[in-house]
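Consider the tokenized backbone below.
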């Protein structure tokens, strides 16, 4: 028996898997015993992996609660949405079928189509299956259907796999953070990692984000282990295995994320001064992975699965340029208010507006006031509250990083904060003001955002400077300002100010908060020195 799984664990795992599998099978159509077998086997393997990962991660009640809640919340949210949307959603195909994400609906339908055909599973990487840009998750979903649910499409089966995978990343993330820093930061950032609503929502859906988050956490553990063994002089080849598993998983599901993670790790090593200690074999391996990632990304983005006479880099850059133009076009076309705003802006200001609007998504005030169904209102409010709770900490994180000591820690936290914000900006540019794609893209590297936010919170708890309260007050005032605008628009309560005036007031408040706060602190410091 594996040293991380004991016989006594099976007395809990087996009946839990069977009972939960029986319940999930009863909620789906098809031949009951096939559903029972498929769900129970998946849960047996998944729960065993979670228990082993929990014990490997150090055990303890806190990590047990984190891992268990990560799975239960995502599974419960996914099942609840699956049954609530057909009853209390919109009269559109996605809602009627119980899917909160259009991508999940299309991918799941195509996975079932592939599974029930005579085609090999690697056909998922063919452009004829356009629902999955890269093909990895489509192939995995088709595998699940072909071998665990051959009689009928059971969306909750892939949903359960996503929830299990999301929870599996928690012990890796927790252990990595504790290894590199301490238990306090590991606890705060891991709870953010577990409870963040956008993560719960995508982790309870047939989406790639839970897989990406976990592969990144696995790679993080390999990277953290390598850093520590460099400090101690010990040699443990397993760290390369974990790093390789994480990177390989990212290449399969989304090559672009593997490239971004390599950039993050490269910057980390550079700032730590580790670049001179890297063996040439590692440099060659990383270079090879980066090259493979670029080729896979360009291949997946090209319409004909070739490079059309151009270079892979050219394919990627053309796709990025066309994507930005397209999302700005969709944003402008989708709202009369946005069209009105864009008419009064030059192209550069339009671009800045798209970034700011993307960062604000999902916007909190319309979650309360825009007409919608109860199910969608609850989803909108919970998503927005989660982001608006984390956003002030992320805004504060560069300030906390700048004030950190010693110099090496300052450089590292500035880099992690900068990477978090760079990814947030990239997501805003790529998805524009879309209230679904923007938060979803942003979520992929939420582990690093959770680290930056967790560090910012702990630093403020220790030093109690004025910046974090200022940022929270700025956010509250801005939410109230836009809330009044939405309230006047939809309920005719209060003054209905032009949206441009509201935007201008928001920008002035932002500038006054940061410039005025800096000037006040500088003036106070001068008085103390005098």
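A designed sequence for it:
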């Amino acid at each position: 028996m594996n040293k991380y799984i004991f016989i006594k664990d099976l007395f809990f795992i087996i009946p839990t898997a069977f009972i939960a599998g029986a319940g999930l099978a009863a909620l789906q159509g098809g031949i009951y015993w096939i559903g029972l077998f498929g769900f129970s086997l998946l849960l047996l393997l998944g729960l065993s992996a979670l228990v082993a990962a929990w014990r490997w991660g150090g055990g303890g009640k806190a990590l047990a609660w984190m891992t268990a809640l990560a799975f239960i919340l995502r599974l419960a949210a996914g099942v609840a949405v699956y049954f609530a949307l057909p009853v209390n959603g919109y009269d559109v195909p996605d809602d009627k079928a119980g899917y909160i994400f259009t991508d999940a609906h299309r991918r799941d339908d195509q996975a079932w189509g592939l599974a029930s055909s005579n085609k090999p599973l690697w056909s998922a990487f063919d452009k004829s299956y356009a629902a999955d840009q890269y093909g990895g998750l489509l192939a995995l979903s088709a595998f699940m259907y072909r071998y665990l649910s051959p009689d009928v499409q059971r969306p909750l089966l892939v949903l359960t796999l996503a929830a299990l995978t999301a929870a599996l990343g928690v012990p890796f993330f927790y252990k990595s953070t504790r290894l590199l820093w301490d238990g306090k930061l590991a606890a705060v950032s891991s709870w953010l990692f577990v409870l963040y609503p956008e993560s719960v929502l995508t982790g309870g859906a047939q989406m790639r984000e839970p897989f990406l988050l976990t592969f990144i956490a696995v790679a993080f553990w390999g990277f953290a282990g390598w850093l520590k063994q460099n400090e101690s002089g010990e040699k443990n080849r397993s760290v390369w295995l974990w790093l390789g598993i994480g990177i390989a998983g990212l290449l399969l599901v989304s090559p672009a994320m593997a490239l971004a993670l390599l950039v993050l790790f490269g910057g980390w090593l550079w700032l730590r001064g580790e670049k001179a200690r890297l063996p040439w074999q590692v440099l060659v391996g990383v270079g090879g992975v980066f090259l493979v990632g670029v080729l896979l990304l360009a291949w997946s983005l090209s319409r004909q699965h070739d490079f059309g006479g151009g270079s892979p880099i050219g394919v990627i850059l053309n796709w990025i340029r066309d994507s930005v133009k397209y999302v700005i076009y969709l944003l402008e076309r989708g709202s009369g208010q946005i069209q009105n705003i864009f008419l009064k802006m030059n192209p550069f200001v339009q671009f800045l507006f798209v970034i700011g609007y993307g960062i604000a998504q999902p916007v909190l005030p319309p979650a309360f006031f825009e007409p919608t169904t109860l199910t969608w209102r609850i989803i909108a409010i919970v998503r927005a509250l989660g982001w608006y709770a984390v956003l002030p900490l992320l805004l504060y994180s560069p300030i906390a990083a700048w004030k950190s000591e010693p110099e090496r820690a300052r450089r590292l936290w500035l880099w992690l904060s900068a990477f978090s914000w760079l990814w947030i900006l990239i997501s805003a540019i790529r998805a524009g003001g879309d209230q679904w794609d923007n938060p979803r893209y942003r979520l992929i590297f939420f582990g690093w955002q959770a680290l930056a936010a967790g560090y910012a919170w702990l630093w403020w708890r220790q030093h109690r400077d004025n910046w974090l309260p200022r940022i929270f007050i700025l956010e509250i005032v801005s939410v109230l300002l836009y809330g009044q605008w939405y309230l006047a628009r939809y309920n005719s309560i209060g003054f209905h100010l032009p949206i441009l005036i509201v935007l201008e007031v928001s920008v002035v408040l932002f500038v006054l908060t940061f410039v005025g706060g800096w000037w006040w602190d500088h003036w106070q410091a001068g008085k103390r020195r005098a």
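Residues 114 and 142 are 6 Å apart (CA to CA).
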